[in-house]
Each structure stands twice: as C-alpha cells, then as structure tokens.
Amino acid sequence: MRCFHFCKLPGRVMGSRLLRFTSVVIIVLLLVAGALTALLPTIKDDKLPNSRREAKTQSQSALDSFTLIMQTYNRTDLLLKLLNHYQAIPHLHKVIVVWNNIGEKTPEEMWNSLGPHPVPVVFKVQTVNRMRNRLQNFPDLETKAVLMMDDDTLVSAHDLAFAFSVWQQFPEHIVGFVPRKHISTPSGVYSYGSFELQNPGFGNGDQYSMVLIGAAFFHSGYLEDFQHQPEAVYALIDETQNCDDIAMNFLVAKHTGKPSGVFVKPVDIRNLEKDTNSGYSGMWHRAEHLLQRSYCVNKLVNIYDGMPLKYSNIMISQFGFPNYANHKNKM
Amino acid sequence: MRCFHFCKLPGRVMGSRLLRFTSVVIIVLLLVAGALTALLPTIKDDKLPNSRREAKTQSQSALDSFTLIMQTYNRTDLLLKLLNHYQAIPHLHKVIVVWNNIGEKTPEEMWNSLGPHPVPVVFKVQTVNRMRNRLQNFPDLETKAVLMMDDDTLVSAHDLAFAFSVWQQFPEHIVGFVPRKHISTPSGVYSYGSFELQNPGFGNGDQYSMVLIGAAFFHSGYLEDFQHQPEAVYALIDETQNCDDIAMNFLVAKHTGKPSGVFVKPVDIRNLEKDTNSGYSGMWHRAEHLLQRSYCVNKLVNIYDGMPLKYSNIMISQFGFPNYANHKNKM
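YS: structure for the whole thing
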C-alpha cells in the first residue's frame, strides 16, 4: 500500500476523524510538555552565577579553604557589616554564624533576599546564650581550618589571606592576631595579661603564651577535642561566660607540648564596638573581666593538674607587604 | 717478736745505719715529689677563669650552642674588631676563622697574648684563596649549629641570640638576616635579585627564595652534604669566586623540599666595609657581581636538573623587642 503523509484517505469523513485525532494528540503532547516544564527547577538569571560559584566552592580542597565561625550577641548591625566584608575573603569556604540572640529571629530571610552571596552562610540558632556555643563541633564544618572571629572585629582580607597561609605551615597551632600571656609569681599564683605585664624573663623582650581565638585560625580537629574536656572546664566557662579562649590554648598546648599559638602581626585590625547601634559593648568591658581571666588560668591549672602553656617570642609579618621594602635594615 | 716503730735495735751501729737509710729514703721521696711537681701543668692565676670557662663551654650541649665560622681575606683589622664582638655572643661554643690570606701569618700569637678569651678560636690556614673554603666540614666543629658570618658584617648580640632560638625551631632551614630571590622570566631564564626586582607574583607582597649564608645559622650537617655535590658545583664556585651561598640554598631546598631559608628581620646589622684600613672592599662591589649570581642560578638549575628553590614570605621578628609594644596594632 502506497502511503504518504499519514495516508491520504478517501473521502471527507476519514479526513475529519484524522484531523480530530491529530489535534487531540497535539493537545495532549502540549499538556504533557507544559507539566514537565512546570516541574523543572526555576532557572532564574541571577541564580546562574550562584550555581557556578557553588560548584567552584565545593571543589575547593578541604585543605585549601577555611570556615569562618562567628558568634554573635546583640550586635546584628555589626554582624551584617562584617559579613559583607568576610564573605569575600579569599579561600573562604563557608560562614557559620552562631546565633546567641535567644528567641530572636535570625536575619536569614534578609540575607537571602540580598543574595547571591559568594559563599554559603548558615545561621545556627542557639537555645542558651553561652560563650562556648561557638566551640561546638558543627556538622556544617567541611574544612580542616577554622577562622574564628569576634563579631566586633574587622581584620583586613590581606591579613587574613596571609595568616591562613601561615596556618597552613603551622596547622597544629592557633595562628592569630591577638597575643596574650600568663606570668608566674613567687607565690605560685598565675596572672593573666598583655604586654603591660612584666616580661616572663626568658632573655630579651617579651613573650606570649596564648593567642586568642577571637581572631585566629586553628584546626577544626580541636573543636572535636574540645568536646572531650573535663566537665569542670565547661562549668568554668559557663560560670564566667569568659575564658573559652584560654581553655582552648590550654588544650592546644597540652596536645602539642609546644607554644599553643603563633602570632601574626596584623597590618589592619579594627574594633568596631563603637559603631554599633545596639549600645552593647562587649564582655571585655566588664570590671571583672581581666581578674576573671587570671582566675581562669589558675582554675585551669588545677583542672589540668599543671601549667601546659609555653612561651614564644616569634612574631610573623608578611615579607614585602604592604611596603615592598619592609624588610630593609641598616646595612 | 714484739716490734714497735721500726723495731728498736740494740747498739749504736744499727742506729746510724737506720738513720742513713731513712735519710736516703726521705731525700729520694723529695726528689720524686719535686719531679712530679715540675711535670704538672702550670696553674697561673689568669688561667683559672679560663679553665672554669672551658669546663663550662665543654658542658654546653651540642644543641644549645653554635660555632661561628668566619672566612677572612685582606681585612684583618675588621676581623679582629668583629672577633672582639662575636666572641662574647651568648651560646657561642667556638670560633673557626678560615684564613684566606695565603702565605700570611695568622694573628694567633697576638690573639693569645690578649687572652683570656671567652671561647676557643681556631685559625684554619688555607693553601688556596677560595670562596668555598668556608664550606669545609671542619673537624673542629662540635656543635649542630653553625653561624656563618662575613668578615665585614656586624650583627648585634640580641639579633644573634634571637635568630639562634629561631634556628632551634627550624633546624633544617638556613635562618638568617639577608633574604634574596630568583624570578622566572617568560624565556625560562632565571634572574637573581632582591626586593627591587618584581615580585614573583604569588599573591600580595614580595617573596624570598634564598637566605644568604654570610649572616645566617644552619645545620652543620649541610657542610657534610656540601662535600658530596656534583663537581660542576665546585667548578662554578671556583670559576666565579662567588655563589657558594646560592649553591647552599639549592642544596638545602633540594634536601627539604621546602623554602631553604627563614628570614629573621635584624634590628641592628651593619656593614663595616668602609671601616677597613686595607682598602679592600669586598667581592660584591665587582661590576659583574649580580650578573654572575644570575648566571649561577641558571647554571645550578642545569647542574641539578631543575629549580629546587621555593618561595616564602614569612618574616620573623622578636616579640616585644627592642620596643616592648612592638606588636601593637590599630584596634
């Protein structure tokens, strides 16, 4: 049977049936197509860069990038200002915001509405306002390195990129921008302080025995270790709402048998406390803050049955930056 | 037989024989004692501090002290000025002076006449005036660490004590005060230089890939390693009377797979060239000096079949010295 183009059937009757049939088929096909299209994810123009960026982010080796953990309380304006800055730091993988504003909604909606963002930001809502909330072993953590920042501290991208490269060379240390020390006294009671305190007396110059974690890189493994400390450590931190950073330095020093920290001298570090509209000015303004920290040092020595902190006088700066001749000396 | 006190013998005859015998015995004993005393080393008053110091020096662990190796040519006045300074550096074990003034007497006599000295100084008389004479594996070396200094360079004791402590934390590196770098060019030909050369282009700021051994600490084991390099390396150094330090950096970089050097920023380093009466002003004033060094870099890449030097931008300073607040930053 010779047939072309749906077989020309004799007569008008056959023709109209075919026509109806074909129309129905076409309509059904269109409906199916429409349904399928509706089920596909919406590809908006502005999402395209995001998915490209997300693919890039995931491919960053866990060793070549870091996670920013920033705890925040009562300074959301500063938090958002800082997030705009930190979200674009080179080698940043993800941001974890530890939300200590109990009962208050996170700015997640606003954050998303102002997307796209260079990296994912997760808001971890807390149930109790605790200083040590930031030292949980967050499942969101995918990188070996953590950058921990206080929610009122701005460190330049240059400083952070350099300090990250230093951390990669000293991964078992807390590599950061704020050095502190303890000193012994003849009574055996320790005191905590900074450079205004007497030098520990090991040769020339000063020494530091701690690097504060409010502006520092450290290995994410230490967050896991922190979950296995004596109960008394948690009790101390909760009692003082302070000293989590001193405890971390004790932990790291015990673990390595070396000075816990490596101090990187920052070129540009700023405290934005004064810029907040909240009126809240941070724990370190409390009258008892420093006394508490000395108290903590001595308590931790009891808990750990010894003083594990060790002194260092190594100060690291970036060669040829910002001044290309910053190494020059009298010759 | 009852006998007391050499047995009293009856009669005068026995008594005088005994007396003579006893006298002879006493005289012989005195002579022997006298002879022994004469054989003992002369204990002079001024040697006492020395022997106490020497005992102390020998008890210094090989890890806690270093040997200064200083090669000298035609600048004995500077040498002696520098020796007065360096002989008193903390943790110094011994000084080895590599005497490149062929045929000329060393100042050893004068040195000894001006004793006592804090540490032993040995003058190694050379037979040929070679730049690489200082890189021999001297049997006089007892310490793990070597401090190598040019005979026209004065580095403060503070800087040296600090740099030694840094070396102890980085014993496989050349820890010193003079950073240099190589750069690649599109043609594949390398060039040698300092900060005035373009940055190698790895992020912000500059990088260094060598630390010169004319003012640096390094492990004495590298002197042993240096004896087992390809002949072409020695030929190159002899041909140029230059580049022994570049060769050492290649050696160390190959050995560690890391940047060969760690740069410690000196507080007080001085070149005393102008102070010499000899009129001799050092190899680096030769017109071809820098070109030679670029030449050496390329030759060494050929000899070692690759470029082993790696970049670093770590600059180390001493925390809290000389300014106790030298770590302070804008906060």
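YS: worth flagging: Residues 60 and 93 of chain A are 8 Å apart (CA to CA).
IM: good catch. Also Chain A touches chain B through 43 residues (CB under 8 Å).
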